[in-house]
Amino acid sequence: MANDQEMAPQFGHAMRSYFQYDASYIPLNHGAFGTYPNVVRDRLRYFQDLTESRPDDFFRFKLAGFVDSARGAIAEYLGVDEGECVFLPNATTGINTVLRSLVFEKGDVIVYFSTIYGACEKTVEYLKETTPVESAKILLRYPLGDDEIVAKLRNKIQALKGEGRRARVALFDTVSSLPGVRVPWERLVKVCQEEGTLSLVDGAHGIGHLRLDLGQVQPDFFVSNCHKWLYVPRGCALFYVPAKNQHLIRSSVPTSHGYEPYPIDGQEAVFNPLPINKGGYFVNLFQFVGTMDIGPYLCMEEALRFRQEVCGGEKRIMAYCEHVSNEGARKVAEILGTEIMENEEKTLTRCCLTNVKLPLRMGEEAGQIKPADGFAACSWMTQTLIREYNLFVPPFFHDGYLWIRLSGQIYVEIEDFIAAAEVYKELCSRVEKGEHIKR
To answer: What is the pLDDT of residue 417?
Structure first.
């Protein structure tokens, strides 16, 4: 009997029929919001219809069983214990859950890299306003080698110790967002273990994108969007916390029925109107976190089935996405006459995202883009791409240059990257003429 890989369809444009994209749209930004196949959409609607047919029955009595089944599926996929996996709406919620759960003392520091996702950095800033915690940002100017990134984290933690402060937690990515590069997160976790610092891994671009050996690497906290690369509807994220650290997570965000305050003599316990999950306190915390559409969580099994039975499995998916992203980026760089963001070890592009420099010169001379206008140029290109060209590849500013980030996926081909390159060649010409600052 033929296996799933032998029976799988050819990747590329033939796969677009499995998804919902407009036929004229060129989707090269999967890493931003993801998408999901038609069969997963059908499953989502099934659960939405089931919910609406008997809402009280669904939320009070059926929900827990469905969520447990989905947790069991993702735990098996990752090779970890089901009791260490719960769901959240998105990775940002997971980062907030951890950082708002930790009890910070004077001298505690949150360490992170300058390529942190913006919403997460704002969370750190908020906590600095409301708790004794301080922060330490490590500047990264790509391209960098993995050894240098690892050394920067270790040096910062040790420097803080020398100052009499404590790196309470280090926050870092599996694959950073902008620029979209693979981060040596496994080695960074090891540094944290050796230095006595908690590791908080923002795997927004993790599950379905990279092979994740969570059981072996053992991060202290790991959160990953399932709606970006795993073909699960928005919003759904995995929140993985090893049993040894679950006592540190006292509440969900927002706090809901699963929270159990420490008992106080003479004070009545707050009533929980929902059934208690036998999975334990950690699982109960996230069983019901306010009324919302829980359908995306329940599509986990259908998404994993599609990846295995239709696509031929994880290795095949990840290999194609990385290959088309890398080869497509080479074509883009060739057409634009620029370069791909890569280090000497060739590790930055070992993922499904690539970054290509735009042929725009920054400076004060004629024909150059004034540094002060760099973000204005990004904003103008972002809007113009959607309005006039029917494709989207995000531009961004990094270390004095403008770049674009490209996403590989099973439904794109090299010709899509070529089309994007020609569009950006035209856009850059328009920027050089000052169109981005014309009123």
So the answer is: 98
